[in-house]
Every structure is written in structure tokens, then in C-alpha cells.
Amino acid sequence: MNKAAVVIGGSGAIGSEICKRLVGEDYQTYFTYLKNKDTAIALEQAFPGYLHGIPCNIRNHEEVELLIDRVKKECGRVDVLINCAGISGESLFVNKSIDEWTTVLETNLFSIFYSCRAVVPIMLEQYEGVIINVSSILGTFGIPGMEDYCASKSAMIGFTQSLASEVARFGIRVNCISPGMIDTQMSKGAQKQIGKSVKKLIPCKEFGSAENVADLMGFLISEKASYITGENILVGGGLGRTLPVS
């Protein structure tokens, strides 16, 4: 195995599935975690020697840089970077604190700047690489009480498109995946509150899975997607893309 991948936020439902898929594609895969230590250990034990969990505060650029330096030293290269860490703020705007706003923006948006800032120079030297940023369908339209989350995910899409246009000539592709309502632990609260209403608006009539996201990721890092860059691809079963009439 001579390919290396980094997954920022690899211990969540989507991140874990992405890590497994990368190992299946013969990547030495390094993933970050902060609180989900048990999940991280279980992942490592399931794929010994192939998956490497590294505790990292992705809101700290120095820790992110140390992570990327470690991968470069141990593997000699970084072929794929996946940014899929994310948290949501769910308080009404009039009640939202500055700390809450800052935490969401730093986790969801600043972290991808830190990781890309560390990885892009390596990929420039290689003259190849793939970066995928996992945004959200809420980066394309808003929802009450989630101004910070929506702002961060919308900005991620713009960041992706801008970076893609800058590095494409160096053999680096940058794309964005925007999941809709995916059946994960993070979405349980939203499913309980508005799940029935949302499902009525989904043409496919069901919530997505982490596997759906990982499937698209697997395609985008492959040679079959060699002419795709700067795109934001939704994995939402048609949510928000059709007029809900019967």
C-alpha cells in the first residue's frame, strides 16, 4: 500500500464509513477524532495496520499541521484529503451566543482551511491529489435556528469552488459532497422533530445512509472522476430539487 488518505472527522457515522471505504481502496488512512475515542479504537482494531486514529482538535491549526506532517513522514505523500467534521448549532438566532457561533464556524469551516493549507503544498509537489469537503444540503438553503451551521456549510461550497479553480492545473481536484437527511446519530434530533415532514418532501421517500455518501466519495477519488472538479454534488434523494406536488 503506497497511497495515503486523511479524514478530518473520521469517528462519526459518515466519517467511519468513508474510512472503511478508503481502506477497501488500498489507502493507508489516518483519521481525526476528539471525543469518540471508543469508536476510534474500534475502527483501528477492525482494520489493524490500515486505519490510524489520531486525537486532534481541528479548531487548532497547529494540531492539524502536526497531523499532516506525521502522514507525510510516515507515507511520503498525501493522496486524498476528506473534510467531514461538523457540528450544528440549534438555538434561535436571538438566543445564539457568540461562543456558539464561533465554535460552529471554527469546527465546520476554519478546519478545512487548516487542513487544506497543510495538504495542498504536498499535493503540489506530487502534481496530483484529491480533496473532498463534506458540506450539507443546508449549505444551499436555510432553516430556522441553524444560521451558524448553514453559513458554515454554504461557505464551504464557495471555498471548494474557488480552491478547485486555483489548483486544477496542478493535477489537484477539489469537490464538495452535500448530504441531505442522512440517518445518523447526529440527525436523530432533527428526525424526531421534523422527520415526517421532511420525508414527504423527499422524492425517494426515505432518508439516506452513510454508505450513500461513501459511495459517492469512492467515485470522486477514482480515475473515473478525473474530469470532475469544483462541483457540489447533493446526496439527498431529490430533497429541495423538485416541486413537491402530487
From TrEMBL:
SUPFAM superfamilies xrefs? NAD(P)-binding Rossmann-fold domains
Give the matching InterPro entries.
KR_dom (IPR057326), NAD(P)-bd_dom_sf (IPR036291), Sc_DH/Rdtase_CS (IPR020904), SDR_fam (IPR002347)
- Please report the stretch or stretches of sequence annotated as the Ketoreductase domain: 3-180
Which stretches are transmembrane? Answer: none
Origin superkingdom: Bacteria
Leader sequence residues:
none
Q: Name one Pfam family in it.
A: adh_short_C2
Q: Which UniProt keywords apply?
A: Oxidoreductase
Q: Which Gene3D superfamilies match?
A: NAD(P)-binding Rossmann-like Domain
Q: Which family is it part of?
A: Belongs to the short-chain dehydrogenases/reductases (SDR) family.
What is this protein called in UniProt?
A: SDR family oxidoreductase
Its source organism is: Lacrimispora xylanolytica
Recall the taxonomic lineage recorded for the source organism: Bacteria, Bacillati, Bacillota, Clostridia, Lachnospirales
